[in-house]
Amino acid sequence: MTQAPDLPAWAAILTALFILLGAGITLIGALGLLRLRTFYERVHAPTLGTTLGTLFIVLSSITCFSALQSRFVAHELLILLFVTVTTPVSLMLLARSALSRDRIEGKDSVPPVV
C-alpha cells in the first residue's frame, strides 16, 4: 500500500529533488572510484559521495514523512549521524592499513614515516 497520493505537491517535488540530488552525488562518487588510478585516490571519492548523498536522501525522507504525518519526523537524523561518523573512520582505517602494508612491502611510492 502506498501513501503517495496523500503527499502534497510541494512535498513530492521537494522529495523527488532531494532523492535525485542524493543519487546523483553518490553516482559521482562511484564514478570517481572507477576513474581514479591508485588505491589512495580511489578511497576518497566514494567517501564524499556516500556522506553527501546520504544527507540528501535523509532530507528527502524527513520531508516526505513530515508532510505525511503533519509533524516533524527526525529519527532519520540518527541514520545521518551514524553514516557521517562511520564513513570517514572506515576510510582512515582502510588507508592506514594499506599504507602500513605498502611500507612493509617496501614500495617506493609510499611517503616515509614522520
UniProtKB/TrEMBL annotation:
Keyword Cell membrane on entry: no
One Pfam assignment: PhaG_MnhG_YufB
Transmembrane segment boundaries: 12-36, 48-68, 74-95
InterPro entries xrefs: PhaG_MnhG_YufB (IPR005133)
GO terms of molecular function: sodium:proton antiporter activity
Keywords recorded for this protein, A-Z: Membrane, Transmembrane, Transmembrane helix
Keyword Protein transport (UniProt): no
PANTHER family listed in its UniProt record: ANTIPORTER SUBUNIT MNHG2-RELATED (PTHR34703)
Protein name: Cation:proton antiporter
Organism encoding this protein: Sphingomonas horti
